[in-house]
């Protein structure tokens, strides 16, 4: 294990390092280049695959906006399903534990009711 020598103000470059320390530094610096090159290659390939993917769909009359719409709809439906599962689980937990909600839940319900009656409706505009 090599210990660093304390710096005495100013930089001296690598002249003060021993030969094996210089070799370790070179390995660390040079060892990163293949990983960086591989990452750039993968990024370029992914971008190419994406454009090929969209081009293939467009040949069959399916445009990017249609694919995006399907993805957004699927995400929304998944989010609604997860919300229902959570709501059902919370309801079951309250039933099992006989938890009435307490003061905080009553305050939340009062604010929620107030918000429902004071929020503008889409029909108002």
| Biggest sheet character | none
Overall number of structural domains: 2
Q: Estimate the global geometry from the Cα principal axes.
A: elongated
Specify the helix fraction band: over 70%
Percentage of residues in DSSP E strands: under 5%
What structural class is derived from the secondary structure elements? mainly alpha
Query: Poorly predicted ranges (pLDDT <50, ≥5 residues)?
Result: none
Radius of gyration: 31 Å
Order of helices and strands: HHH
Number of helices: 3
Task: Provide key terms for this protein.
single chain; 125 residues; mainly alpha; 2 domains; 3 helices; 0% strand
Blueprint of the fold:
Blueprint: H1 19-59, H2 64-97, H3 102-118
How would you describe this structure to a colleague?
The chain has 125 residues and is mostly helical. It folds into 2 domains: 19-61; 63-117. It is 74% helix and 0% strand. The chain is built from 3 helices and no strands. The chain is elongated. It starts with 18 loop residues before the first helix and ends in a 7-residue tail after the last helix.
